[in-house]
Amino acid sequence: MSSRKERLLDHSYDGIQEYDNPTPGWWHMLFIGSVLFSAVYGAFWHFSELAWMPKDALAREQQKYYKLLFADIGELNADAATIKQYMGEADWMSFGRSIYASNCAQCHGSEGNGINCPNLTDDHWINVKQVADLYTVVTNGVASKGMPAWNARLSQNERVLVAAYVATLRGTPKPGRQPEGDVIPAWFPAGTAGVRDDSKELASN
Asked: What does residue 82 show for φ and ψ, rounded to 5 degrees?
């Protein structure tokens, strides 16, 4: 009993006297080890060139996925004929819509009606004169308008397919940003062999 009294601390709070019971040595070792580990961990993941990031792992998995996904179609050409062909492919347009939703909708609106970037549903276009120009704009961006280049972020096929999806938005006007630019000819003028004439019909596929 006397040994316990000797270990009582002199001060007290609200009449309660504190017992001198320090944390064990292993707890201190764990604490010091955690601090040292956090310093090494932070230095490695934030400053070392050898560190890998979750986005790198995601990129590798995406490459595997796209390799399987595009196995049957290979690498798509960025021309009007290819864009026209895939505008009528419902499954691929669903894929193009998902790319648009992830990368374009925040500026152009979920329906293409424009937020702080041009409305894509009317017939007025600023940097596009023909359907193949959609791919060029997606690839190179428009620096003067604040649109980034997507050539380093999206694969060739993704850019072709999202360009085809954007092409289907034309002729489906929705309330939003006012028209900008010039009215341009239809993507596929009437009488063009093997090409549909009605962009609205394409958009409905």
From this structure: -70, -45
Cα–Cα nearest to 117, from 181, 30, 40? 181
- Phi, psi torsion values for 17, nearest 5 degrees: -95, 130
DSSP SS3 for 177: coil
Tell me, letter by letter, the H, E, C secondary structure of 41-86: HHHHHHHCCCCCCHHHHHHHHHHHHHHHHCCCCCCCCCCHHHHHHH
Compute mean pLDDT per 10 residues along the chain, 205 residues long, and list them: 60 76 90 95 84 74 80 92 95 92 91 90 94 96 91 93 96 89 89 43 41
* Cβ proximity of 55 and 133 under 8 Å: no
- The sign of the CA dihedral 15, 21, 22, 27 is negative
CA neighbor of 174 nearest in space, from 132, 101, 114, 116: 114
pLDDT of 35 reads 96
